[in-house]
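Exercise 7. Given the encoded structure of a 338-residue chain, write a plausible sequence.
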């Protein structure tokens, strides 16, 4: 049997999407509601493939009354620009990562607490449950509407040229590149590493010249950026999970008739559930590809990392920042942290 590769999977999805588009009846008149959706990912990413599927479904089930136009790959600006546009109503929908929307809704970053989630079972129990409901309520207070199902951006993993990271002790003094995020910087400092904030465009050359010895990103990013060329080890730490909130301008959403809201919400939420499975399958094929390119994998247990973060005061600090209610909902899904 031919192995399922990332290219085959995405190609099949694109073909299916194209086939569904070709089979749709063209509306006899212009759409009653024309809605704009913008994001920062390539058109071939599972997020955009499933979003197009949702848009086609909405057009079909509303008889052409509703048109969702998709603008992928930062066509309408960067994350900060798109967040501003969805707030003003310049675009109807946007899918920011939790860390992006956290600049507006600080509690939205709670899913990125270090070593909180050990697997997807815990992630979805929290984000489809009471913690997600709590964050959605906070988002609603800013005039935005967040749909019930988050879309997946994957777990972040650590790579290194120095050796495998098996426990928190291996983090001591490790020069590791991290994004410009207070939460990420605080986490790695709490692990006694030496985090260096760099733009992503600088990561490859910084690893190559040993300005830093390690970095952390989801596996597909490690693959696309060819970081396996300058790294030897990949520790599947699952130290941070991040996802996309599918949000809408509140005024535009409230202006839609109830029957249209029902169709759109169902299509978006169900497409998000399928996108989660796409990303999970994609990560599995990416790992196999990276292994074939010489990257060595290991599976560190989270216990020593969590203990180090407790001792350093990281969990206590961020419990205070997020508040007792949100932190209690997080621990209800993952167990005691602070």
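Solution.
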């Amino acid at each position: 049997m031919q192995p399922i590769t990332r290219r085959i999977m995405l190609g099949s999805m694109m073909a299916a999407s194209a086939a569904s588009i070709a089979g749709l009846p063209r509306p006899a008149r212009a759409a009653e509601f024309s809605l704009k959706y913008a994001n920062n990912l390539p058109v071939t990413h599972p997020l955009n493939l499933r979003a197009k599927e949702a848009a086609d479904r909405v057009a079909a089930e509303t008889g052409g009354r509703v048109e969702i136009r998709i603008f992928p790959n930062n066509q309408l600006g960067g994350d900060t620009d798109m967040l501003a546009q969805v707030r003003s109503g310049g675009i109807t929908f946007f899918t920011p990562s939790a860390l992006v929307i956290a600049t507006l809704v600080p509690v939205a970053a709670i899913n990125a607490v270090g070593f909180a989630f050990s697997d997807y079972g815990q992630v979805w129990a929290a984000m489809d449950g009471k913690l997600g409901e709590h964050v959605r309520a906070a988002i609603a207070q800013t005039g935005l509407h967040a749909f019930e199902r988050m879309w997946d951006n994957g777990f972040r993993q650590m790579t290194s040229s120095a050796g495998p990271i098996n426990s928190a002790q291996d983090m001591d003094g490790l020069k590791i590149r991290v994004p410009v995020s207070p939460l990420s910087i605080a986490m790695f400092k709490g692990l006694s590493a030496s985090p260096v904030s760099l733009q992503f465009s600088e990561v490859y050359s910084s690893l190559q010249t040993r300005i830093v010895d390690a970095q952390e990103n989801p596996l597909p990013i490690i693959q696309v950026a060819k970081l396996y060329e300058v790294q030897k080890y990949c520790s599947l730490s699952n130290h941070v999970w991040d996802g996309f909130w599918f949000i809408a301008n509140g005024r535009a959403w409230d202006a839609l008739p109830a029957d249209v809201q029902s169709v759109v919400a169902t299509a978006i939420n169900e497409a998000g559930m399928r996108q989660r499975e796409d990303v999970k399958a994609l990560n599995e094929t990416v790992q196999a590809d990276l292994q074939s390119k010489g990257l060595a994998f290991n599976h560190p247990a989270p216990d020593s990392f969590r203990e180090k973060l407790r001792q350093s005061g990281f969990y206590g600090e961020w419990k205070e920042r997020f508040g007792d209610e949100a932190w209690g909902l997080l621990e209800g899904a993952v167990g005691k942290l602070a």
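Remark. Residues 33-333 form a domain with the D-Maltodextrin-Binding Protein; domain 2 fold (CATH 3.40.190.170). Students should compare their own answers with the one above.
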